Amino acid sequence: MRRIDGYVMRTVGGAMLLVMVVVLSLDIIFAFIAELDDTRNDYQTLQALWYVFLTLPRRIYDYLPLGAFMGCLVGLGSMASSSELTVIRAAGVSLKRIVWSAMKPALVVVVLGVAIGEYVAPPAERVAQSTKAVALGAGTNVASASGVWHREGDVFMHLNAVQPNGVLHGVSLFRFDDQRQLTSASFAERAIYQGDYWLLENVRTTHIEERETRLETHRTRRWETGLSPGVLSVLIVKPENLSMTGLYTYANYLGKQDLNASPYWLAFWKKALMPLGTAVMVLVAISFIFGPLRSVTMGFRVFTGLLVGLLFKYMQDLLGPMSLVYGFNPLLAILIPIAINAVVGAVLMKRAG
Which of 28, 77, 117, 234 is close enough to 246 for a disulfide, judged by CB 3.0 to 4.6 Å? Predict the structure, then answer.
C-alpha cells in the first residue's frame, strides 16, 4: 500500500511541478517583454531582467493554487487514462486513501505558498519596486506615476520610491486648511529616517497666501510624521503582494487615521484563506477525475480545469471589489467561492464513492 501511496504522490507532485514550470516560463517571458517598454533613464535591459527576477517569488506564490489544481487534474487524469486508477481500486485501495495520497503534494504546495507569501515575496517585491522607481528617476520627478499617495491629517503626501533601508526618494507634501484650500506644497529629493523623525534633503516649499506665493528652499528640514519605514515599506507594495503581518499592521494604522482599510482587509483574508482555497480546488480536481471526467481525453481535462480555475478566480475577483463598493464583510467575498467549490467537490465525491 505504501508503494501505491508513493506512486500517486510522485505522479501528482510531478504534474504540479510541470504545470508550474510551464506557467511560470510563459509568465516570465511576457513580463520581461512588458518591462522592456518601460526602459528609460537608468532603467535598461539588465535592470528590467533584475526586476523580473526579484518579482519571481511573487509570481510563484500567485500561481501555486493553479499549479496544485491543474497538477492534480493532469496527474490523476493520466493515471485514469492508462487505467491505473481502475487497477488500484480493484486492488482494494479505498477512494479515501487515493484522495489522501493526492492531497499530500497539495499540502506541501500550501505550506510552500504560505512560507513564500509571508517571508520571501513581500521583501523581494519591495526591493523590486523601489529599485525600479529609483532607476526611473524617482528623486527628480514631482509626484511621478510610479509612486504612491497617502494622507495623514491635513497633509497629502506622494512618495516616488521607498527603499527598505529607510530612505525615501521624491517626497511631495501638500498641506490643506480646514476649508480644503491648498496652503503649501513641498518637494524634497530625498528623506532619511532618523529614528523618530525624517530628515528631508534639498527641500523646495511654496507657500500659497491670499495675494501671493512665497518660495522657500532648505538644504535639510525636519519632517515629523507617524509613518515609519516599516509602515512605508507596506505602503509601496500592492495589498495583494504583502505579507499577512504587513497587511494586518497597515490596516490597523489606516483605522487609527480614520482611513478606509477595506482593500487591505480583503487582501489579508484572501491570503489567510489561501491554504483552504487551494485544498478545496484540489478536492474539486480529484472529484472531477472520479466523476464526470473519468473517461474523457487529457485535452478536455485541461480545458475543464482551466475553466473551473478561472471561474473560481473570477468569482473572488468580482466579489472582492463588490465588498468594497457595497460595504459587506470582505471575508464573505473570499469564503463564498470557496464554499461553493467545497459543496461541488463534496457532492461529486459522494457520487463517485
Answer: 234
**Each residue's pLDDT tens digit, 167-225:** 888 889 999 988 888 999 999 989 999 888 899 999 999 998 877 888 899 999 999 88
By DSSP bridging, strand 155-163 and strand 148-152 are antiparallel
Q: Which three cell numbers stand for residue 142?
A: 514631482
Cell of 182: 491648498
Q: Rounded to whole angstroms, what are the CA distances from 47 to 42, 52, 109, 144, 165?
A: 8, 9, 30, 19, 20
SS3 category, 258: coil
Tell me the one-letter amino acid at 120.
Answer: V
Nearest to 22 by CA among 302, 291, 341: 302
Residue type at 193 in one-letter notation: Y
The answer to whether 218 and 200 are in contact (CB under 8 A) is yes
Give residue for cell 510563459. 26
Would you state the torsion angle of the CA atoms of residues 115, 267, 260, 151, taken in this order, to the nearest 10 degrees?
50
* One-character DSSP codes across 33-66: HHHHTT-BTTB-HHHHHHHHHHTHHHHHHHHHHH
Q: State the Cα–Cα distance between residues 146 and 92, nearest whole angstrom.
A: 60
Question: Rounded distance, CA 8 to CA 103, Å?
Answer: 10
Q: Of 279, 280, 242, 282, give the one whose Cα is nearest residue 263.
A: 242
List pLDDT tens digits, range 303-343.
777 777 778 878 888 888 888 888 888 888 899 989 988 88
- Among residues 217, 216, 222, the alpha carbon closest in space to that of 199 is found at 222
CA distance 318 to 337: 10
**Could you tell me how far CA 293 lies from the centroid of its own chain?**
32
Measured CA to CA, the distance from residue 238 to residue 62 in angstroms comes to 13
- As a residue count, the chain comes to 353
In 3D, which of 125, 131, 126 has the Cα closest to residue 58? Answer: 125
Task: Record the cell numbers describing residue 139, joined without a space.
Answer: 528623486
Instruction: Please tell me whether residue 184 adopts helix, strand or coil conformation.
Output: strand
